[in-house]
Design brief:
With 113 residues, the protein is mostly helical. 98% of the residues lie in helices and 0% in strands.
Length: 113
């Protein structure tokens, strides 16, 4: 009978250890799932960070490459503004000359009559 009690005691110990192992296995599986999720998040964050860094680098390259063109376009715009100003003055001068010519013609016509 003493042997039977030892056997039952061992069986109970084995059952308790089996339950403990099942709990540990579940915990291990939960940890693995959490690690998979963490790895995916890290990968996603790294990819996003690389995309942002690449976009910033491209923007800087484009800005650097476009700077001489933008400077040249600003010079052209300033030159065009100067040409427009000269054109307006010339148009005003021609208008006054034409008005003076018409006035002289009218005066001549009045004097002739």
């Amino acid at each position: 009978m003493d042997t039977e009690r030892k056997i039952y005691g061992l069986l109970e110990t084995v059952e308790q250890q089996q339950k403990s192992l099942e709990i540990a296995a579940q915990a291990l599986e939960a940890t693995r799932a959490a690690l998979r999720t963490l790895v995916d998040e890290i990968h996603s964050a790294a990819t996003h960070g690389a995309s942002v860094a690449a976009a910033q680098a491209i923007a800087e390259l484009v800005a650097g490459a476009a700077a001489p063109t933008v400077k040249h376009l600003n010079q052209i715009a300033a030159s065009a503004a100067g040409v427009e100003s000269k054109f307006r003055r010339a148009a005003a001068w021609v208008t006054w000359q034409y008005l003076a010519l018409v006035a002289a013609g009218c005066a001549s016509l009045v004097l002739a009559v």
